[in-house]
Amino acid sequence: MEFNMSMMVPATPAELWSTLLDVPRISGCIPGCEKVEEIERLATYKATVKQKIGPFKVEVPADIIVESLTEPSHVRTRATGRDKFTGTRLAVVLDVTVTPEGSGSTFAVDAKVDVQGRLATMGFGVIKRRVDQNFEEFERRLKEMLGAA
């Protein structure tokens, strides 16, 4: 599954970029993201993501790798994990791009998500709805954090 989302942020690219690289801070904007652990700065992390999708409650401990980083405009990360209750396996590649837009920035996310296991039986529509809800909540929290809510 592929998802593409973007938002306008009332912060300069440099301000937005420094927020994005503050992993403990930005992780607070991600719905369901808990227990973030930095293994190596801007390289490797661990986190747990909890979500309710359809009838399933999933808790995925994830290993996160920063595959590429081009300051101050692009970062690619890969996250993999497995929910111990449903056996669902997730693999996510996120490309995050920051571009100047007027007096602010555009924050764009291109996500490639591979879902295997019981959660995959929910189908694209149910998963897409949850992804859209999470992105809206992320946008609200990020703008609030930047003082623009």
Describe this structure in words.
This protein has helices spanning 13-21, 23-27, 123-145, and strands at 2-9, 33-40, 44-53, 56-70, 74-82, 89-101, 104-116. It has 149 residues and is of the alpha+beta class. The chain has one domain (2-145): START domain (Alpha-D-Glucose-1,6-Bisphosphate, Chain A, domain 4), CATH 3.30.530. β5 and β6 form a beta hairpin. The longest helix has 23 residues, at 123-145. It is globular, with a radius of gyration of 15 Å.
Spell out the blueprint of helices and strands.
Blueprint: E1 2-9, H1 13-21, H2 23-27, E2 33-40, E3 44-53, E4 56-70, E5 74-82, E6 89-101, E7 104-116, H3 123-145
Antiparallel strand pairs: 1-7, 2-3, 3-4, 4-5, 5-6, 6-7
Backbone shape: globular
Rounded to an integer in angstroms, the radius of gyration calculated over CA atoms is: 15 Å
Classify the fold: give the CATH topology.
Alpha-D-Glucose-1,6-Bisphosphate, Chain A, domain 4
Spatial strand order of the main sheet: 1-7-6-5-4-3-2
Number of individual domains:
1
Beta-strand fraction estimate? over 45%
